[in-house]
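Hey, I'm writing a tutorial for new members on how sequence and structure tokens pair up, and I'd like a real worked example in the thread rather than a made-up one. If someone can provide the structure for the chain below, I'll link this post from the tutorial.
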Amino acid sequence: MKFDASQLKFDDKGLIPAIAQDDETGEVLMMAWMNREAVEKTLETRRVTYWSRSRQSFWIKGETSGHVQELVDFRFDCDKDCLLVRIRQTGAACHTNRRSCFYTAVRDGEEVELMAPMA
């Protein structure tokens, strides 16, 4: 069956959450938003493209930072309302220059920073 992005369930703003996961390690690196065109661009170019809600524009990961996300596998969940992009990450995924955006944990009621910014 040929994939058609219109089968995905976008929210009332035309967006769908996309979780970026390192294909080799399984580590969850970040979550960002895509619209239909970002989905189509990602599949066409194999460079992960998101929709920036703050800038109201496309955001090709790594275009300015060099921290590129190369698409390995594109999946959607059973409800078709969330995406999983399995990627090869070059450099940091997070804008804080950390490998993952999920670097803060709550342990015994305290926030604990799990990783420092990359050198």
